[in-house]
Every structure is written in structure tokens, then in C-alpha cells.
Specification:
This protein is α/β, with parallel strands linked by helices and 392 residues long. It folds into two domains: 146 residues, Rossmann fold, CATH 3.40.50.720; 228 residues, 2-Layer Sandwich (Dihydrodipicolinate Reductase, domain 2), CATH 3.30.360.10. Helix content is 34%, strand content 22%. Strands 14-13-12-11-7-10-9-8-15 form a nine-stranded mixed β-sheet. A six-stranded parallel β-sheet has the order 3-2-1-4-5-6, with helices on both faces. α5 links the parallel β5 and β6. The protein is globular, with a radius of gyration of 22 Å. The chain starts with a strand and ends in a 21-residue tail after the last helix. It binds nicotinamide-adenine-dinucleotide. Nicotinamide-adenine-dinucleotide binds next to α1 and α4.
Length: 392
């Protein structure tokens, strides 16, 4: 077993600094390199953790001082940094979203598979720390246990992502097609989109309505309603906004044996005494309902967070168990598919099938970048403290 992983952190803004904060207390890792295109950020981080500073990730990779990299750059840079890291034979833990669009995500997966042919123990993880949250783990457990029987509807209203204009103005890359590649679906919701596919799988058809800069002076989407159709007949609603305060985060799951609601950290199960689908078909009464019993489902409030995802990634490298992760990198393609599918449907004003037409989405995005006239006055050099946003 490898004793210590030599890690390089690429991107030292809000999230990269957040990762550095806990990395010093994790066992089995030494941060040997840090990288940011802003030299002062690289130097300051290097001085704090005794690592070597770089301003170019390719120089970092060529220097031979790391076994793995943690990528915490703006979204478009995830793709080249990850591909170069795989080409250099390094393990990769990538921040969410895996990429801005499906074609970029696929290129990263292809580079990983290619590198894995030479090194089968190469590890590719993605930072989906919400999968460690106890409430979501409990929902996964309930669904896997078949408690709800056949699922019929999922409705997720998450408008607890309120962001002010000052937030959008805080970084030059934020909320632009060229810098960020999208709005709420690309920045705030990758965790929710991953959670949706983790719990319910991918739909076969997506209908999306996205409002561009409806409540903020931005050129990307800040309010979205999507309708998902699944192969087995289940339907999903995904309603998100960065312009509601107070917002709500309510996940409602309906199945033949009842309704489970996760809201305010509480899981409530209205359990049917018998299958409502069978009852619906067979009862001779006209207006009776299935007998149901409300219960609050207890779950242990165990530890969760970014450090668990990183810790598992480092263990996977040290123990040469490349698939023993909280989230395997290639799974990130699924959330990107949902995000791109919603936007493609909204642009084309019609439902789109899954797998989506990735070339059509990329072409649309390129067009938006090329024709963008949006210019923002960003506050230069500021690092945003994101710890306040993690509690959502
Ligand atoms: N998992 C989470 O909970 C969570 C929370 C917030 C942000 N994020 C993700 O973390 C990533 C970074 O977001 P952030 O909020 O820290 O952004 P940020 O703007 O605060 O920081 C990005 C940093 O990357 C640097 N950078 C840009 N291009 C680079 C390159 N090619 N090489 C090296 N450094 C480069 C910038 O100079 C900046 O310092 C994004 O993918 C974002 O979605 C994840």
C-alpha cells in the first residue's frame, strides 16, 4: 500500500482554498504543489502549506512532484486540466460539474479510459459531497429497499439557491456563457442534478423552460422548470431558482406505497397500507382513498462533506482500489446530460430525447459565446468564501 499521496491543488479561489483548509488534517496525503493562474494566489497557498507554487498546470504535471491533482478551477478548465493529468498518468479528483457540456465530459472520460489501459489503478473521482449527506443516503436506502414500490412521480422544488446581483458581480467568469458556460444548472445545481440521477436514474425525455437573466443582470439562466419522462412511466419535475427568498428545498417522491417528502432536514413517509395502483384498479368504491399512516423516518446524523469524498479518493489511490469512491468521475456525465438537455430543450422549445444531441448543444453554446455582447464589471482579485453556501 502506498503510504502517502502527493497531491496538487489546481485552482485556489473559494473552493480550492476550502479544500486546502481540511487537507492538512487528512491522513495519507501531502499537498506538494499548488497552482493558480494568479501568481499571488499560488505563492500565498504555497507559503501556507509548504508546497511548490505553479501558475500553469502543465508545468506542475511535468515537474514530477504529484501523484494526483484536485481540480477546483472554473468549469471550462476542468476538461484540459483533467485530460493533461491523465496523459501524465496522474489520478484526478474533479470539482463539479464534470464539464460544461457533454462532449467535453466525454473527452475527459475517454482520456481516463485511455490512461487506464496503461495503469488500471488510475483513480478518477468527482466532488459530489452531497452523496455523503445523511438524509440523501437514507432516501437512497428507502428506494433501494423498495419501500415505495413502483415510483410514479418525483417533484423537486429547490429555490433555496438565492444569489444576489453582488454575488454574480463577484467574479469575471461567473454567469457568462464564455466564462462559466451556464447559470443555475451549471453552478448551483450540479449536486441536485447528480442526486436526481443517483436516486432515480436518467429520464428518456426532457422538456425544459429556462429564463435567461430574468431577475439578475446576467446572460445565463436564473430560473428553470424541467419535466422529465422516465422509461417506466415515472415523471419528474425539477424547479429551481436563484431569485426566491425565502426559498424552499422540497423533494417529494411518490410511489405505489406512499409519498416520501424531504424538507427542512426531515423525512416524512405517508405510507399506504396497500398498493395504491392495485387499489386504483380493483376497488369498487368511487371516492375512497388508500389508508395511509404518516411516519417520520429517523436517520443517523453522521458526518458528511467534501473531506469524506477527498478522503475516499486518497484511500482508493493508496489501496489501489480505483472504483471504491463516493462518486466515480464518469458518473458526472449524467448530471451534465440533464443540465444540457434542459437547456437544449428550452432553446429548441421542444422535448429532447436522452441521450441528448451533444453536438447540437455544443454548437448552441459556441454560438452564444461568439455572439455574447454582455460585459460585466467584476470585482477583480476577490476570493469568495463559499462556506456560507454549503449549508443549503
Ligand atoms: N463542491 C462544492 O460544494 C463547490 C462549491 C463551490 C464551488 N465549487 C466548484 O469549484 C470550482 C471553482 O469554483 P470557485 O468558486 O472556487 O471559483 P473561484 O473563481 O473562486 O476560483 C477559481 C480559481 O481558479 C483559478 N484558475 C482559473 N483558471 C485556472 C487554470 N487554468 N489553472 C489554474 N487555476 C485557474 C482562478 O484564478 C481562481 O483563483 C468550480 O468548478 C465550482 O463549481 C464546488
Amino acid at each position: 500500500m502506498q503510504e502517502t499521496v502527493r497531491l496538487g491543488v489546481v485552482g485556489l479561489g473559494g473552493m480550492g482554498s476550502g479544500h486546502l483548509g481540511y487537507l492538512t488534517s487528512l491522513p495519507g496525503v501531502t499537498v506538494t504543489a499548488v497552482c493558480d493562474i494568479v501568481p499571488e494566489r499560488a505563492d500565498a497557498a504555497a507559503a501556507k502549506c509548504g508546497a511548490q507554487p505553479f501558475t500553469d498546470h502543465e508545468a506542475l504535471l511535468a515537474h514530477g512532484v504529484v501523484d494526483a491533482v484536485l481540480i477546483a478551477t472554473p468549469h471550462y478548465a476542468h476538461t484540459p486540466v483533467a485530460i493533461h493529468a491523465f496523459q501524465a498518468g496522474k489520478h484526478v479528483l474533479c470539482e463539479k460539474p464534470l464539464a460544461v457540456h457533454v462532449n467535453d465530459a466525454q473527452k475527459m472520460i475517454d482520456a481516463y479510459e485511455h490512461a487506464r489501459a496503461a495503469n488500471p489503478n488510475l483513480v478518477f473521482g468527482i466532488m459530489f459531497q452531497e452523496r455523503t449527506a445523511p438524509a440523501y443516503r437514507k432516501l437512497k436506502d428507502l428506494l433501494q429497499g423498495g419501500e415505495l414500490g413502483r415510483l410514479t412521480r418525483v417533484t423537486w422544488i429547490n429555490t433555496a439557491w438565492f444569489r444576489s446581483q453582488a454575488y454574480y458581480d463577484s467574479g469575471g467568469w461567473r454567469a457568462t456563457w464564455g466564462g462559466e458556460g451556464g447559470g443555475i444548472l451549471t453552478n448551483q445545481c450540479p449536486h441536485n442534478l447528480d442526486m436526481y440521477q443517483w436516486l432515480f436514474g436518467l429520464p428518456t425525455r426532457i422538456t425544459g423552460h429556462a429564463s435567461i437573466g430574468k431577475y439578475h443582470h446576467i446572460e445565463v439562466e436564473d430560473e428553470v422548470t424541467a419535466y422529465f419522462e422516465h422509461e417506466d412511466g415515472m415523471i419528474g419535475h425539477f424547479i429551481v431558482s436563484t431569485a426566491e427568498s425565502p426559498g424552499v428545498n422540497r423533494l417529494e417522491i411518490v410511489g405505489e406505497y406512499g409519498r416520501v417528502v424531504l424538507e427542512d432536514g426531515k423525512i416524512t413517509f405517508h405510507r399506504c397500507r396497500q398498493s395504491m395502483l392495485t387499489f386504483c384498479r380493483e376497488t369498487k368504491t368511487l371516492f375512497d382513498h388508500v389508508e395511509t399512516w404518516p411516519t417520520e423516518i429517523p436517520y443517523p446524523h453522521t458526518e458528511s462533506g467534501h473531506h469524506l469524498v477527498t478522503g475516499k479518493f486518497l484511500d482508493a489511490i493508496r489501496r489501489a482500489q480505483p472504483l471504491d469512491l463516493i462518486a466515480h468521475g464518469p458518473e458526472g456525465l449524467r448530471g451534465v446530460t440533464l443540465a444540457n438537455g434542459i437547456m437544449l430543450s428550452s432553446f429548441q422549445q421542444r422535448p429532447v430525447p436522452v441521450p441528448i444531441d451533444a453536438d447540437a448543444f455544443e454548437a448552441q453554446l459556441r454560438e452564444l459565446v461568439a455572439t455574447s455582447t454582455f460585459r460585466k464589471q467584476a470585482a477583480p482579485g476577490e476570493v469568495v468564501d463559499f462556506t456560507a453556501s454549503w449549508a443549503k
